[in-house]
Design goal:
By secondary structure, the chain is mostly helical. It is built from 20 helices and 2 strands.
Length: 457
């Protein structure tokens, strides 16, 4: 009896193993065909096999979901309007399946952003539901929330909900601050990487093909973030004008005059929008400095001193603010104010020092490069021992202006025009030939103290 039972169980286990082995073989065969077609972009042939793999072999390989995403996005791009929602929903399901079956090989925050964007793009769910999908991704992992398009969509949805009376204006302001800071953070990463490679180019070193591609990627991303920054500001629109901000904060001042966070936000927004002439700004700054003397309160006191025409006192406050400031972007803005103050006084060497400090804090601060370029151009007649050297200063000015446009696309048009104008004032081919200066290096004296290599003919 025992022998029969053992034989029976052995048979069951053998047949079960055979079935599993056969299933694995079927999965492997189907996957091979599907992946080959997908790799060749033969999506029509790959699609049914990918769908079968999702259903019958969901844990076979993460590649199923990688190719599945490409295929569904392609189908979505080519679908008729009435078919898009169903395909988009299938794409969302695919994202969720990947997260379920391959969590270790999937960025959860990135998937949540992709799901939220697919919902928005294809009108799946209402605006509240779409906003909550973005908000969940944002709250889970702000570091990974780097998509320029997703940052705009997230903010845009909140503004729409506020317009519909479902969110407070203060919610809009709070998210605006966070999204703007995130955009600046990503801009700075791109600009720093770009600046490093530009310096390598300027030093005459050859870039690898990978570095050339990185330059292109940095510039593309900087353009994307610049466009989104403009769109976010446009979406905020008149909500942040002085006419709306002053009544909003005046109404709440008494109950919040001891709340440092509220005072900081209110004073910061009025400062950012140049609403500093209203008495409310003085009240906010005074209360903030009393509650918590800080970089921000010193900055605002500097603005008030500047508005009163006391440039020396303003400079003292700005320097205090820069020393106390810990936020890199805000520190850069303060350094720009200090630099502009020195520039206006004609103290170009000190101004350049602070423009460079602004760039160290925020590499995408293209306006700092442009200001240095302008100071060099203004100094051309005073720096150089002969007419050729004096005009050579314009080459250096043009280089700084061109760099301004590369790290900050928002000023690229003005920067490029400025660079072209300065090159037009520099020695031309005939001048270089007559002076036999091609390829030579000129050391520019006075306060500039830099060198420039004369172009080869």
């Amino acid at each position: 009896m025992k022998t029969k039972l053992i034989l029976f169980l052995s048979g069951v286990l053998f047949s079960s193993g055979f079935v599993n082995a056969q299933a694995n073989q079927d999965c492997a065969r189907n996957a091979s065909l599907a992946y080959t077609d997908a790799k060749a972009k033969n999506y029509e042939a790959a699609f049914p096999r990918i769908q079968q793999l999702r259903e019958e072999c969901p844990t076979y390989s993460v590649v199923t979901y990688q190719y599945g995403e490409r295929i569904l996005k392609d189908r979505l791009n080519n679908a008729a309007e009435g078919e898009k929602q169903a395909i988009a929903q299938d794409l969302i399901n695919l994202y969720r399946e990947r997260l379920e079956h391959f969590p270790a090989k999937t960025d959860e925050a990135e998937v949540k952003i992709d799901i939220a964007q697919a919902m928005y793009d294809n009108k799946i769910g209402g605006k509240q539901e779409q906003f909550e999908a973005f908000d969940a991704a944002w709250e889970q992992d702000k570091e990974s929330f780097t998509s320029a398009r997703a940052l705009y969509t997230y903010f845009s949805l909140l503004v729409d909900l506020q317009d519909a009376g479902q969110k407070d204006l203060q919610d809009v302001f709070n998210l605006y601050d966070e999204v703007s800071a995130k955009i600046e953070e990503e801009e700075n990463k791109m600009a720093q990487g770009l600046a490093n490679l530009i310096e390598k180019q300027d030093a005459g070193e050859d870039l690898t093909s990978k570095e050339e591609k990185r330059i292109s990627a940095y510039e593309t991303n900087l353009n994307a973030y610049n466009q989104v920054k403009g769109s976010v500001n446009a979406k905020l629109g008149q909500r942040a004008d002085c006419e709306n901000l002053i009544p909003l904060y005046s109404k709440d001042f008494e109950q919040n005059k001891s709340d440092v966070d509220w005072l900081r936000r209110a004073a910061g927004r009025l400062s950012g929008k140049d609403c500093t002439d209203d008495p409310l700004f003085f009240q906010l700054v005074e209360a903030l400095h009393e509650q918590e003397p800080s970089a921000k309160s010193a900055l605002y006191l500097g603005q008030l001193a500047e508005a009163d025409g006391n440039a020396s006192k303003a400079l003292d406050y700005y320097q205090q603010s820069a020393e106390l400031e810990t936020n890199a972007s805000d520190k850069a803005r303060v350094y720009m104010k200090i630099a502009n103050n020195y520039k206006d006084k004609g103290q170009f060497s000190q101004a350049r020092s602070f423009y460079n400090q602004a760039l160290q804090a925020r590499p995408s601060m293209g306006r700092a490069y442009l200001q240095i370029a302008n100071m060099y151009a203004q100094s051309a007649n005073n720096c150089g021992s002969n007419p050729f050297e004096k005009r050579a200063v314009y080459w250096l000015a043009a280089d700084y202006a061109a760099r301004a446009g590369r790290v900050d696309p928002s000023i690229s048009s003005n920067a490029n025009q400025t660079a072209a104008a300065y090159r037009g004032r520099a020695p031309q081919r005939a001048d270089i030939f007559q002076q036999d200066m091609q390829g030579k290096t000129i050391s520019i004296g006075c306060w500039i103290g830099e060198s420039i290599r004369v172009p080869n003919l």
